[in-house]
Each structure stands twice: as C-alpha cells, then as structure tokens.
Here is the input.
Amino acid sequence: MPYHLVAFVVAALVVLVTTPIVKKIGLKSGYVDLPNPRKVHSRPMVRLGGISIFLGSLTALILVWFAGGFGDLPSPSEYEIWGVTFGGLLFFMIGLLDDLFTLSAKSRLVMQLGVATMAWAMGVRIEFFTLPFVEPSLINLGMLSLPVTLIWLVGMTNAINFTDGLDGLAAGISGIAAVVMLITSLFMNQPAAAILAAALAGGALAFLRYNFNPAQIFMGDGGAYFLGFTLAGIGVIGLVKTVTTVAVVLPFLILAVPILDTSTVVANRLLRGQSPFAADKGHLHHRLLAAGLSQRRIVLFIYALTFWVGSLAMAYAGVPWGKLYALIATLLLAYACLQAVRRVLQSRKKLAIASPQNDASKTDHSVPDKDQH
Here is the structure.
C-alpha cells in the first residue's frame, strides 16, 4: 500500500473539512487577528487555522499507523516519528496559547527550548556532521549535540513563523519544502521521514484553499510553529542522520529561503540594538511590498524561489530527473523575476507621474515656495 500517498490525501481531506468549522468557531469566540500598522490585512481574521493543519497531519499519521504503515520500520525510526509528532504537538500548543492569550517572547522561547530538549531526548537529535574534503569526514558532536539540535529546531520553528506575514506564504513555503523532503527522503531510503513529510505536505497545501489571497483564515502561531518544528524534525531524522556529505546539506538548502530571510532580519535587529523578536518590516515580503508588488505576486515569487532551491536540493541529492526539475525551476524563477521587475518599474513610473501632479495641485493658486527653482 502506498502509505505516503494515503498520508498526503488523508491530511488534505481533514484540513479541507475542518477549516470552515474552525473558522466558524473562531468568529463566534472572537479569537481574531486585528489589523495594525505593521500588518497587511485590513479586517479582523480568525487566527486558529493551525488547528486544522495539526489535526490533518495527526489523523493521517494515526491512520497510517493503524493500517500497518509503520510495520516495516525499525524501532528507532518509529520512535523518532512519534518524537517529532509529540514535539510538534507541544510546539503547536505553545503557538495556540500565544494566539489565545498573547505570551511574551521570553516565555515562548523558554517553552520552545524545553520542548526541543524533550524531542532531543526522544531521539530527534543531530549527533554528527559529515564534511567534504576533511579527514576524518565524520565529525561526532558529542556534548554539542544538544545545543546544535536546539538551535536548529527552535530556529527553524521561528523562521517559518516569521514568514507568516502574507496570505498563503508560510503554508506554501512549508508545503513546497515538505514535498521536496518527501521526494528526497524516499530516494535516500528514509521512509519514516517520508511519511511525516507526506502528511505535512498534504495539510499545508490543502490549507491554501482557505489561506491563499484573499485569505479567509490565518494559521496563527500555532500552525506556523507546528509546520516549522515538523520540517526541522524531518530534516533531522530523515536527512542529517544519513552518513553522506550530501544529506547534511539538504535540509539547509531545502529551507534556504526562510533561513536566509530570518538570519538577515535577526542580524539587522541585533545590529540596531533591538530584540531579535522585535516586530518590524524588514522581511523579504515586506521589502517587496514596499517596492510596489501585490500580495499575490510576492507570494508566487517566493513560491518560485522556494521551488528553485528545492529543485537544486533534488539535483544535488541525485534524485532521478532532479536536474530537469532544476532547469524547469530556474526558468520559472527567471520568469517570476522578470515579471517582478516589470511590475516594480511600472509602479515607480506611476508614482513619478502622479508626484508632479500632486505637487502642482498643492502649489496652484498659492505663493511659490522660496526653495523651488
């Protein structure tokens, strides 16, 4: 039985069925995300959509487990699946508490580190790196395993949460990354990670039915934390644990877009003497909005960018047809870049035309300014 397909389809169906129910409950209870100057939505939105994504993934995994999909897995792999799932549950609860009661950044971080430590104790851990051109190539982390794993799990969780700034952005990035992880995990004979990736991909992509612009519901911190932690966990148990140089690079390449975006923003905040969790408009999607692109075009552009780095990962891993995927993704990204540049130039042209008209309307029938030439 193709258990990966079953996990994908079940998760997608559960999300499609439960999201309208969650939305209705959210509206009645008043748990909505209100507009503010930093956010781009203009009306209150239910922010509990992560409940549907979590339920979809969990239902898919339980069904596959009952159907015997974990039967051929070695005991450590099955244990790791539930380690990632249990950690995802707790991260989801942290985010849900923040959605409901607005937790402080410090309390969220402390709880995240505690849950990540529990996941590490359950086997979701980075224990070694395999580096090219180094002898010995296999480097055991030893006591550094815990801090390195915590940085990866907590950092990736918050990176996905930081991308959740436009309709459909975090769900789309996560869905694309999960599909790439599914393909690479199957190719590298990592069935446990593949099942997790399939369930996550189904839930995230199905959520776009209600979350793509114009969004009907937001996933909230609960959904973003769950997606981020699960993606990070899949990378650990399915790719980093493989004793090949290629495998160590793959999670960082697949998730390069949120990693680089978050790293840049956090570095800028620290250089300005601000908290790394301080809210601002320094993310890639904020900059593209300021440049004059619409929400939809920005989201589609970042999808293309995410698909491109994912295709590079597949080609690098030696996945069949991986180079063809990379070529197609490169052409798609080039087209998206051209369209983005064209729209930005059009937007600037319109502003340049409108500006003199506005200036003229302000100065007509009045005394000319002394500084004007």
Notes: The first helix runs from residue 3 to 29.
